[in-house]
Specification:
524 residues; alpha/beta; D-Maltodextrin-Binding Protein, domain 2; five-stranded mixed β-sheet; four-stranded mixed β-sheet; 17 strands
Length: 524
Amino acid sequence: MAAAAAAGCSRAPSGAGAAQPGQAPGWQRYAAEKITLNWYINFSWFSTTWGENLVAKTITDETGVSVNFIVPTGSEREKLDAMISSGDLPDLLTLGFWEPQVAQMEDEGLVYALNELAGAHDPWFFEVADTQRLSWYTRPDGNIYSYPNSSYSPADYELHDNIGSNQAFLVRADIYEALGSPDMTTPGGFCGAAEKALAEFPSVGGLPLRALGLYDFNKEGNYSLEEILMNFLALPFEKGGAKYDRYTDPDYIMWLKMFRRLNEKGLLGDDLYLDRREQVAEKVAAGQYFCMFYQHTDIADQQLHLYNKDPKSAYIAVDGPMNGNRDRHTLQGVGINGWTVTMISKNCKAPGRAVAFMSYLMSGRGQKLTYCGVEGVTYDEAENGGLEFRGEAMDLLGSDRAEYNRVYGADNTYWMMQDTAMQLDWQPPPRPPLAQPREWTFPYTVYMPEYDVSITEANAAEANRLIREEWGRTLPALLLAPDDGEFDRLLEQFVEKRAELGFELVNREWMRLVTEARQKLGLT
């Protein structure tokens, strides 16, 4: 597999649904046997049910599989840890690739090796799986315990020229333009624009305007103020063959201090530190943020809602914070890790059935169904070989996402196994509020799959966890500091503490993994 990956090989042409000669896909052999699989989704914001929508019903009719989703109501980590410790794992699990429980469940033998299950029950799995992704997710013991969604291999980037980054700096278009489209690439310009926005537009639609929208703060920090901001500042991941300390970079510190000053002026608001993703989504749908560091794909539904109320109130992407050298943004393209991984637990009541169901969803047939819907209802095959999406379904998708999910269930309503690279061939032209942020990222998107590494070695992983949690406590304290002097003291305290916790050990292990990743992917 590693050799195939190095050669730039990806999914075989038969990956869109053909099986080996004489070997029927597993889902066809099992279809007459009805079964319900319990599927845990490690995201408390996920509220979709299997239901009776068009896609779910069609999948069940074709495969015989119904799904009972299990979702945490509070802390994802506490829920998953409790299931692991009690041995009460459901049939399938989907969680972020970065979560430490991925390696834990693999190391403790709580999940099946997918390659062994597929070899015994559904060899078609290897026909529909991407070889570079399989190679990437192969563990040192030679087994593959999880398969990703939203993953882009080097071959995908070679094949497609329309892959952008999800990371964006977004501004509410009407307010931004009313302010004269200010330059927000410098701390002074950013601070001045935020102050002016709240002074001239203290409320929108009867609700208070917020200067800044971010992902929620969690035990390990804040994605907006780390990865997204750092990539806008074009901070490198390594220098001179060693891991670069992005957290003490002078430009990064300068921008964090600017946010501290915004907080001191009372422009950020307490809810910035308290809101979970659900509350952030509600504020986006109401247009309550002047600007945001966010993944534009994560607020597509809210964007459509705003656009339908008033096209000028939707969010657009603009140039964001820059470093002192004015270097171009280096926004990370989605890497080979993808977003989430799916695993089959040793508690699974029908593991062969589960891996065949995964194969079905991974295949061209499953992808076309979960993304496009059903031919003749949501789309038609065009004479030129493309697809024509039907107006009624598209209109509902653009006006009421919840109702669209209930009626149709396409457009990755069930995103657990989505292959966004494969789906590029079927994408309709982006709707107006969604096209601009996506296309804006194209010139700044950089593919850096070698940095998609997760530290799993026991000592380094524990040190990394402790350092991340120390940062999770430090970051909000930095923004809430009364002055720059206290900010400096808190940052120095963090740097000293992380050294004690094993910072050098983590850096060495990270660099080792990056070097290994380059070799695995055939990168120089």
